[in-house]
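Table 4 source record.
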Amino acid sequence: MDPILNIAAFIDDEEDEDVEDALLLHILHDDERLGNRAIIYGRFNLQTMSDVECKNLFRFAKNDITRLAMALNLPNVLRIENVTCISGIDGLCMLLRRFTYPNRLSDLEPLFGFSGSIISKVCTYTLNLISENKSRLLLDLGNVAYLNYEKLKEYSEAIRNMGCPLDNC
């Protein structure tokens, strides 16, 4: 912005309004948020992250994220209509990050290299896909062998025996 300010210093007072318009246009067009996030920040790559980073960002170890994607039957490529194609694991990472900590979408742009609107669409698409594939597990808990009354009672007793401060577990 320095060249613009240097030029503005030499312009007559009569042209102040033009200088203000030029400065405003320069500021608006120089804003990095208007650029391609992949070029500005780089694309997200889970393989370059350590397990410690993965646990801090997503609450899962790196290999557990891959296992979770497989268990949730996420496809290798998510094709989001009129937006983009992204790997299923990257979509899951975006969703996990949104669930891990309440972030603004703009805060996630540097991590994933996508605009906030695309991150939102990927998270929504991934969540809907998981819901379509696995919601039946939550709709009828009677069909889940490890969530029957006896098992739940056993789990609550184990938690209580470990020193749970609540007495109604």
